[in-house]
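Dear support,

Our group has been running a series of protein-ligand predictions, and this particular one with zinc ion is the one our PI (initials K.S.) wants archived with full inputs and outputs. We had some confusion internally about which version of the output was final, so please treat the block below as the authoritative record. The input we submitted was:
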Amino acid sequence: MSAEQKITPEHLKRTAYLYVRQSTLRQVLEHAESARRQYALRQRAAALGWREDQIIVVDGDTAHTAASAAGREGFQRLVIEVGLGHAGLVMGLEVSRLARNCSDWHRLLELCALTDTLILDEEALYDANQFNDRLLLGLKGAMSEAELHLIKARLQGAILSKARRGELKLPLPPGFVYSLDERVVFDPDQQVQQAVKHFFETFRHAGSAGSTVRAFRRAGIKFPHRHQAGSGDLQWEELTHARALELLHNPRYAGAYVFGRTRTRRTSEGRVTYQPLPTDQWRVLIKDAHPAYLTWGQYEENQQRLRGNAHAYGIDRRQGPPREGCALLQGIVLCGRCGRQMTVRYHQRQGRLVPAYVCQREGVATGQPICQCIPGSGIDEAVGKSVLECVTPLSLEVALNVQQELQNRLEEVDRLRQQQVQRARYEADQAQLRYMRVDPNNRLVANTLEADWNGKLRALTQAQEEYEKHRQADQQKLTEAQRAQILNLASDFPKLWQSPTATDKDRKRMARLLLEDVTLLRGKTLTVQVRFKGGANRCLNLPLPLNGWQARLTQPELLNEIDRLLDEFTETQLAATLNERGCCSSLKLPFSARRIRGLCRYHGFKSRQQRLRERGLLGSRGIAELIGSKPILVDYWRQQGLLKGVPLNDKGEYMYERPDPEAVKQIKMRTRLKPTEALA
Ligand SMILES: [Zn+2]
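Confirmed final output from the archive:
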């Protein structure tokens, strides 16, 4: 069949696509020849009957490899256009190079066959629906992929054998450079050498990458970095946690030449991932290949230490299983400020362990202050309470009623599900009909239709199974006994939660069964967002937790009371009164005169003397002047009932009210008469 016979008016109505691809920018610039060949292809298409404006050039993929369709928008666009049946002709210099990956290539061929699209290269015009053409195209595709594979294998083999001899030039970490004769030597810059030495020395003392970063930041020391594989410009940057780990894990500092420390994998979306390998699986490891900052022994010791640190603080600590500590929300608490997982830290307070929730991931990475740290005991209590509240008789009753209501509507739901099965059956029948009607000789189309029919049948079986499964689940009605059991939960659960035999670990397990996660945000108040497993949310607003010295402050109400009572009582009397009432200090200790004096001084309360003086009372000196007597005699007159006194303190001192004129007269008379008698 000649080329002209393959082309129908139908093809000419549709667009012709010219796919242009050059792997590298250099090819794009240098290969003017291929541009000429591509122009010739255009003319060929025009000669075959396509109008100039029907020919579209797809060149979005210039400088992309054809090894995979991922990341090649031009190729994907081409596939879409062909799939939609917009293309009558696809052109390329060597069409098999459209895709050098057999699965991409065959997909394109199949689409071309289905949508009746022709393929044109410099040699011939192909119709994917014709067996000979299809065979030829398939072979070309396979050869093209094999060619790429061979080139790759040859290049990689060369790289590997060069690496085995330790001669492959690899990027060097800071502290090393290539000499003029291509050997690895210490960086001639003394400052760089010092910085690297100081880094490893600091790690030896500090024991963790995090504290090494902090030490560097505190001292304001920056770390060197050279662009272009250790030979470019020198730059000084802040040390980060990730960078510190990279340096510590790099065996080149121990003088070892290494190659192939990671394995490369391609994901289904075409992304490349790197997976680190253990030391014994590295492709090449040559020890003592060049000068070193560390011995191999020191390097291995560092690795051991980093592994130990990772177990204590690292990733496996977060979201781990419930542990023995008392922090209820361990592993399920999120930071409301940055969204990261928060970790738990314990403090010793009066012999008890007190948890605090800390968001420190970012802080660890950059040696900065941590994001937020929130004392945990108040939060645990509040969350525990709201967990208990959600398992009340009322809420369970409501849930059961909703369940009952759903049961009642089952028929409606059942009808809807049945319709889905019906639809699947109809589609399967249609696919069968299409398959029956096709010309058996047209195997390509018949195959596609048969596959379609099979797919529809599978969907039908799936829909039926799904329907059965749901129907059976619906029929499982709650028995009265089960209902009672669920309602019993309301009384059993709080008992279990508060039971003294339940460990912290048990409570954590229960909390995790009910809670999805808890988000903490510290603002003017503490916002606690509790997310339950069922999808319900609850927002708790708690007062900000007190820190150490705030917690030790006496309650304001108690202080007011002390202020008020000082008008009536001396300090000792007041302490006794408060203790009688069962009040105690913030440290749960009984009051004493000394403690009360301290509180008054701290809070700036008036002294008892000041208070009495304000009430118009006088000291012994003042009253002595008033009655014309000696201060030493004043207490005697009080005992005689001539003066009224109010106790000032516990040493037996008094303050006195102003005496009435009659009493003064009496005192004066008795003083004048017989001073000695008066003393007696
Ligand atoms: Zn945070």
